[in-house]
Amino acid sequence: MGTTTPPRTLAEALRARGDESLAGLLRARPDLLSPVPNDITQLATRAGTRASVVRALEHLDRFALQTAEALAVAPDPAPYDTLLALLTGDGEGDGDGRDDAGAAITAALPAALATLREQALVWGEDARLHLVRTARELLAPSPQHPSPTGLGPTVAEATAGMSPGRLQEILTAAGLPATHDPVSAVAALAGLFTDRTRMAELLDTAPVEALSVLDRLVWGPPYGEVTPNPAPPVQWLRDRGLLLPVSTRTVVLPREAALHLRAGRAHRVPEPVAPELVAAAERDPQAVDRAAAGQGFTALSTVEELLKLWNNGGPAILRAGGLSVRELKRAATALDVPENTAAFWIELAYTAGLLASDGETDERYAPTPAADEWLDLPAQDRWTHLATAWLAATRTSGLIGGQDAKGRALSALGPDLDRSAAPEVRHRVLELFASLPPGTAPDPQTLLARLRWERPLRTSRPGGPTAGSPASGQPSGDTSDLRSRIALWTANEAELIGITGRGALSSQARALLDEGPDAAAARLAPLIPEPLDHVLLQADLTAVAPGPLERPLADMLSVLADIESKGGATVYRFTPGSVRRALDAGRAASDLHAFLATHSRTPVPQPLSYLIDDVARRHGHLRIGAASAYVRCDDEAVLNEILADKRSATLRLRRLAPTVLAAQADPGSLLEGLREMGYAPAAESAEGDVLITRAGARRTPPRTPPAPVPEGPPVPDATLLTAAVRAIRAGDTAARAVNKEAPDTAASGSLPRTTPAETLATVQAAAMTGSAVWIGYVNADGAASQRVIAPVKVEGGFVTGYDHTADEVRTYPLHRITGVAELADEQTT
Questions:
Q1: Fewer Cβ atoms within 10 A, N terminus or C terminus of the chain?
Q2: Banded pLDDT at 519 (limits 50, 70, 90)
């Protein structure tokens, strides 16, 4: 600005900043860019709005917030030394036994103040620091919303409206000279409370019980209720102005008196330094990587199992959306995990785009086509896909089982699970993990303490007490805030996915955070065991897979046998039902014998061969078709046996022919009913051919994964910031342009007025000299505006030039220009 005059407003302070500083403000507070302000004045106005200031305050660390809170109770403007004294105290000590952190505060205050200035919450030079008015209103004390510092109103504020006679009585009781001037009386009482010597002498005469009352109010809240006939200690305090009335039943400890009792400190525990992250355990980094890789492989297996579970169509969707509690329990049982863990895997698969609703009339969840593509990827790429989706997800599975604001239960895959803060918290938690040496697991409590310091929890009303502070009434170990809960969930979920191993961050996760998915996959690949092409068949009708199996082998074995146990080795059990399932899928007995002989490192046990042959011999002996349904069998004795069985009564069978029974049940129910009775029927088509059931036939239409819900406007990139700063500067130049001949006209916002001949001559001269001019312009809709342009070409009734206001080259019809004027000298420099 070419001047050293101190700024008088926030707009002037912003105007004096450089472009990099303005870009820093827009980067820290991206909501100011929606839309791009027209000029500096509009930027300053928007930066002072309540919603924007609340958002800015909520992104401060604890000491920067404490600094702002101290400014809120300081005089406006406040010198730097006054602010420092409010944070460090006056050095007299208040008897609470706390160590003096003055040196640390003195060292940290410039950086905290720089942060507040950068975010346009504080402006002015050190001699005159101004907290923006909206922030002062949010953080200042009031009876409805006490200050986060626990301080009450000043003597002047608390005695506003008090009668002169009552002020006289207080002065007399306090031993001060009487005065009939209310202003002088208030000043005398405030002077007493700020004078350490006279205040100490006054308190020396106080009853012990009165000092106890002050001790309860000194660190807040400063308000207390009194009866119409208060006890003598309270009356003693009221008589001397140490408790001032707010209403007929409420009194308050004035700010000046509280600061004396606090030894001048605005906060009981200033926290200029972030809590140190303490290591809970130190482990071998290679062991951490192996443990994380093993858990990551388990995560892949669990998601694959979930996809298989819902392969032919998963559970129905609730009317309100999401998964029922019964279906969640069923999935948890099938996956052999607790319900909350099952909910996490279901949400992860959904977030990664592997599960979705099928969109049918009877809407159900099912795997998506992307799930088949995912299954074909190498294991390390499948893992990075899941981990990347988890990091960016705003859906928070930890909320499942709780209630929303209206008391409705939150269900898996249901609505209202998005929390925009989740991705930022997850990344920050992992960054703190990464700040420790490899193989080091952080202590969860110190992790939470660090997160709370970096982003202090605020009450539902912005400007209320900071959680964990003495004024809040909440213990510092309280984990009821959402960010703390998300952090705890993040630590647990990171272990489930395999991002951490044995509580420490793995090298593959560090690569994912620092270098991207490809680098993480390259780190993980050597740690994942190679898939096996064989199993070990045993005489007890089981097969042992000593490690992960190749996909074709695993898919076929999951049809032919049931998984009995999982772990380092997977145990499969062959049963009549599982063998029949393979036969239903179109496999012949000879195919099954050949498959087992090819993939077993041990001879095929005789009991298993007998089992396959026995089921195959009976498979298809009965035929089920649509009559509504019928049973066909060449052996009349078998049909007689079915009719005689009481369990067939629900099927309502009757004989149509010696080898045919009709049923009133549908073919599917008839098929299942006879299988439950111990038979092995097969479904047939209208032509009499056996129907083959193909596994994995149901897929949703192509779906896109759920989009994360952003937390406020996105952070602009460098290109957008540069363009925005140029546009704001240009708009400010246009708004502040001053007409040489008629400065009052420009200042009032009126359009310049010149004749057409004068307009043409002026813009032609500006085009020849390359100078900028100030024009009034009316567009086709009749909207008038002022613009600053640098004409480059004038012909055919049009002027083309660079429009500083719009930050682009534009062409204007001369007949729509109301007038033109040169810019004042200070505007062209």
A1: C
A2: very high
